Predict the 3D structure of the following.
Amino acid sequence: MTTTPNAPSAPVPYDPPAQQAYPQDVWPTSARPGPHGDMTVGGVSLSEAAGRFGTPLYLLDEGEVRDRCRTYRAAFPPEEADVVYAAKAFLSRAVVRWIREEGLGLDVCSAGELLLAVGAGFPADRIVLHGNAKSPEDLGTAVRLGVGRIVLDSTSEIVRLAALVPHGTRRPVMIRAVPGISAGGHAAVRTGTDDQKFGLSLMDGSAQHAIDRVLGRPELELVGLHCHIGSQITSITPYVAALRRMVGLLARTRDKHGVVLPELDMGGGHGIAYRAGEPALDIPALASRLRAELASGCARSMLPVPRLTVEPGRAVIGPAGIAVYRVLAVKRTGTRIFVAVDGGMSDNPRPALYGVRYAPRLVGRASTAPGLLTTVVGRHCEAGDILAEAVELPGDVHPGDLLAVPAAGAYHLSMASGYNLVGRPPVVAVSDGTARLLVRRESLDDLRRRDIGA
Ligand code: LLP
């Protein structure tokens, strides 16, 4: 996650979208140039979809999501590993079905995500529950539905969970350890070191203490250890370092308690490109390196190789999503040209939260006008509502134009807000030339209905 410094708007030759390739590190594999500057994804025209469903609009390429699941399944074969999709990236009932059909598990972090998934037919025993502060409702629902793994994040949670387990039964749990490895695209998403709220420290002995406590509870069955070092990580190195420390903890648990834990969950955090040319984590390379390190580390410690789990969210769904906005205003101030669209920080808070910048492009119209460097902004009442900086758009960009933003599938709508009562955009699945509404637009009526005071 990097920011581009403000750039003055200088004329540059503009290459109309129809003649450009769609760099597949940011656009779905199915993206194709359409007639008159249009683009199709999953065989669906972006401008037709914008006309039919309105803007702002989020498209999800179902084939891209499924392909990405298959890449993970091939890299982490089911005989020795589990791939668990992190629902926090984006969840809807259709996504639950795609994930189930592709053979992945599901990571949830609230009763809400859990109930939506189980209600849509996801088997509870393939669900992992996370959270640094699980509510009584989260824990109670997980126990009642029989989720596959509850990942304990604090010592107080051990007692709280044990108290909920029906007499004479046991629940499978893991302990989230903090391995002391710093990684991730922004301080807000680095979770591998002791200066943040998640997990139990491996460095100060808290993780070991939690293991002792859990092993002493007959209601809880400790099946393994978990770590999640951060998000938007594009290098394999920190995963390898974390894995070595986690294997060390498995070995110390065996030495101290004579208990061999059968599972190791290395979390998610696999980074993607948001703009052409940015790095993304190489999933097959990660898989072969992790599996090799696990085998050699376990051999050195004379441990059997535990079953490995990874929990990708962004890398499964991020690149499958496209946001489509309509331009509402174009304004020249000083040296900058602001292009304002009909969405912004209420549907995508990531630029405001992490300083990320996106790469929108004009779709639905060809232009031969020379290109200009523009700043693409949202419609919300904050100067920080900036989607993209120094983006080349044709010099005749005007209200009514459509802009498409790639890599919009993860952590946009799942983090959307009701700011300025704009209403959250719809989500439409595209596949084989058809567009299907998954989540409808939030209407003023929806928003008004919750406001019951007089
Ligand atoms: N497992 C655990 C325990 C997690 O906390 C997370 C993400 C994941 C897996 C999936 O991480 P992913 O593969 O999607 O990076 N809102 C931020 C990202 C927050 C990630 C939170 N935890 C963003 O928009 O960049």
Remarks:
- Residues 237-257 form the longest helix (21 residues).
